[in-house]
Amino acid sequence: MKKINIAIDGPSAAGKSTIASLLAQKLGYVHLNTGAMYRACAYKALQQNVSLEDEDALVDLLSHSVLEMKNDGSVILDGKDISHAVRADEVSLAASCVSKHPKVRAALVRKQQEIAENGGYILDGRDIGTVVLPDAEVKVFMTASAHARALRRLNQNQEEGIATSDLETIEKEIEERDYQDTHRAASPLVQAEDAVCIDTSDLSIEETVDRILDLAKPFLSEGDVK
Ligand code: DC
Q1: Residues 41, 91 contacting (CB under 8 angstroms)
Q2: Residue identifier of the C-alpha nearest atom 16 of ligand 1
Q3: Residue 209 to residues 51, 190, 205: CA-CA distances in angstroms?
Q4: Burial track 89-104 (b if 16+ CB lie within 10 A, e otherwise)
Q5: What is the pLDDT at residue 181?
Q6: What are the backbone dihedrals phi and psi of residue 224, each rounded to the nearest 5 degrees, phi first?
């Protein structure tokens, strides 16, 4: 059967990326973390002292950058591996800021659509089911309480040796980003009408993956799941 696309949207730190890469492994698909593309733009703006409020300067910055999203998940900007650097807390807030500009979104959405054109992709982000891939065969809106998300982010940062704030600060930042992401004018975070909502606060990673595989089942052939 033809390879499908799976859209996973939801607030920050809901587990989208972890789940999407596991699903990709199980299906032999590629995971594209679209948040990393907004992060890469924010990272370069911070490096080059470009104002996060200057939409045209950000678009200009993007058009003079070579952004490669590798199949293994690494993010290469102008030949340099920035996969780790883009995860820093400072870049998270800056990414939320750059992502509110319609022209920045248009440039990155176009790139995402080109990448996923032939199916076989799992995209995670905020606007995948609504804007990037409105025809995706499977659409999931993944959420969890701000507290559960802050706890997971803290553990993940500590495990991966990423510079991190304390739990209370992370929770506050998550709430701040939720507010920015859901209240911006351009493609705010909303659940697509035809997306299935999965609250992962009390679900294990395996349970969440299984739920999504169940949703994908009608589009898969026997033996597709490894
Ligand atoms: O998923 P993430 O936390 O890495 O995303 C970083 C920021 O980028 C987040 O604040 C929202 C924004 N984003 C977006 O607006 N649209 C996407 N498809 C993905 C991320």
Answers
A1: no
A2: 126
A3: 39, 22, 6
A4: bebbebbbbbbbbeeb
A5: 85
A6: -70, -30
User: Which residues have C-beta atoms less than 6 Å from ligand 1?
Assistant: 12, 34-35, 38-39, 95-96, 99, 125-127, 177, 181
Q: 68-93 pLDDT, tens per residue? A: 999 999 999 999 999 999 988 899 88
Q: Coil, helix or strand for 2?
A: coil
Residue 223: predicted pLDDT: 84
Q: Compute CA distances 188 → 15, 116, 164, whole Å.
A: 19, 21, 27
Band the pLDDT of 41: cuts 50, 70, 90.
very high
- Structure token pair of residue 126: 């905020």
Neighbours of 126 (CB within 10 A): 26
Query: DSSP string covering 17-33, please?
Result: HHHHHHHHHHHT-EEEE
What is the per-residue pLDDT for 161?
Answer: 86
- Give the pLDDT confidence score for residue 109 in this predicted structure: 98
Nearest-CA residue for ligand 1 atom 10 is: 96
Mean pLDDT, the chain, as a whole number? 94
